[in-house]
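fwd from M.: "can u put these together and see what the complex looks like"

so here's what she sent:
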Amino acid sequence: MKMKTRILIADDHPLLREALSQVFSNQKDMEIVGQASNGEEAVSLTSQLKPDILVMDIMMPKFDGLEASRQIKKIAPNTAILILTAYDDDNYVLGLLEAGAAGYLLKSARGQDLVEAVRAIRAGESVLHPKIIEKLLKQAMIKPAGAVDRKIRDLLSAREMEMMKLLATGMSNKEIADKLYLSLRTVKAHMSNIFTKMTVASRSEALVEALRKGLLTLEDIKHGDSLEE
Amino acid sequence: MSNRWRTFHICVLILIFLLLTLFYYNDRLAGIPIISQLATVSFLGLSNYAIERIIFVLLIVYAGWSLGIRFGIATLVASALVILPRAILISLDPVEATIDCVAGLTIGGLSISLIQLRRGWHQQRQKLRGIRVALRTSQESYEELFTNASDAIWVHDLNGKIIIANKACEKLSGYPIDEGIGKSVSEFMSPDALSIAREVKNKLMKGQAIDQRYDQRLIKKDGSEAMLELFTRTIRDDDGKPIAFQNIARDVTEERRLRDNLRFQIHKTLMAQEEERKRIARELHDDIAQSILLLSRQLDILISKSDSKIPKTAIIELEHIENIANDAYKSLQRYARDLRPSILDQMGLVAALNWLTEELGKELGIKTSVKSDKLPQLPSEIELAMFRIAQETLNNIRKHARASAVHITVQLSSNNLKMSITDNGKGFSTSGLTGDLAREGKLGVLGMEERARLIGGNLQIKSEPGKGTTVIARAPIWTRQKGLIPFI
């Protein structure tokens, strides 16, 4: 039997927390493993319960959602963080991604969108618009290509690197499968490996990491339709 | 003497002179009928033409008295030329006659000399009196000004010993004048003030004048400090060497206090305004927005329940309600964000500027850009001030500029932050002085200026009609923020 996706909800508003939980627990492939009411709790519960996905409101009192993200990534790198944000400003969002979020959604997103986002993250799919990715990659701390550590370079296999590059252009798993003449399952498996090797829990994180480590450069992500300015 | 009188006198003189000459030589002129008739007159038995001679002398004196010594001498010479020939050549006793003439002429000459001398003395005396009066008046005026001036004036020698001081010094220093005289000025100064004073003295001794008032502080008798605007000049002796310094001081303590008070009030008001905005934004967001969100979400759950027994038509209605709720939520978000953008608090100034410009760009369909040096973590007060300045500027651009491009640059150099906002809109004429704009109540400039000043910086606005506008805000970055109101 397939494992249910284990989800932790963090939101300071109790009724909203309840409502969110209901959204996910209505799904057969998901279960709520816990609820946190502030950033501190989010961090501690995550380290205890090690959920697959943390759905977190970015704005909670006392504790900065961004800071929580950074900390959680350190202690539970395999937990993907889906952030619920009030604003979808690019500038806002980029900060979130740099902090290690897997993706974000507006707080006002429909239940259906939330559920699909969770599923997408689990599948290693992108939950971000390619333009956002490009913007992110441009603005993230990018090491200049060139002197890449041999150890880092050998991190991913050639196949995986190939996938990485395609990933960077915003292709879905299916599209990658088609391009490389592989089955979807194979692609997903590779994704999983990539994530493990890079100790990340989602595609977005993988991209950020790849850039930080110098495995990818801006050139790699030049996207067909994103050359508009 | 008026010209008419002079002419009169001259006419009389010449007339009588001529007549006299005719009388004198009447016997030689016997051929001329009228004259011989006139000439037969003789008075007082004084013949020998003595009477004529006497009248000639009188004429000399008359000329000297009425027309001045030059005329007197001229008449003397003329008379001599007339009477001497007869005396020497024609009269019966030439020697006596000549002596007679010379005596007369001498008397005449002496008389006019005396008259002249007396006149001279008189004039001198008048002049002297005039000078004395002028001097006294001037002295009295100076003394009056000195004593009663509202500015404190004192003179001290090169070592600082006070020589004289006016009444206002009492009020300023708290010491009565006779207590102050003889004291050294250094007794009234703190070490900082002393170093300023020393600098001033050096400059003045070198011969450089200080044209402007400068700030200085004074310790009063009761120990408190007074802020002064001081003007110092050198007093020199006849050789041009400095011997003393005169100081004129205006007490600006109250003025400065009021100004700083005012600034403090403005600061408090701005801060209160910010706090209020923050509070309202948070309440809008935390309280109301969340409730609406909840409303929206509950509806969503209701609609998407697969085992729901709600009829289709009802679901459509519910979706409709959910949309309304969503819109309400979005509106609230927008209001809250305009009041106090959390992006500023969370992501920093540059991100917030990006947001501002992008919103403007979307709204007006114009090009925008934000370029920034790499910035360290800035103190929140500075980020907020800069953000508000930018917000106000962009509002102005939205309202007035009709621009097609807006660019913001943020630069950091040697602990100074500089933010420039340029637009290519229609611009406006400024007298160059931001103060005027502020006074005219235009463009929310006063608020921007004050905000800049409160973080220890300044604001500059450059614009020309048709050539766009640039707003430049500068502020120093301290690693540890001092109190917000530097006493400048």
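replying to her w this: Residues 94-148 of chain B form the longest helix (55 residues).
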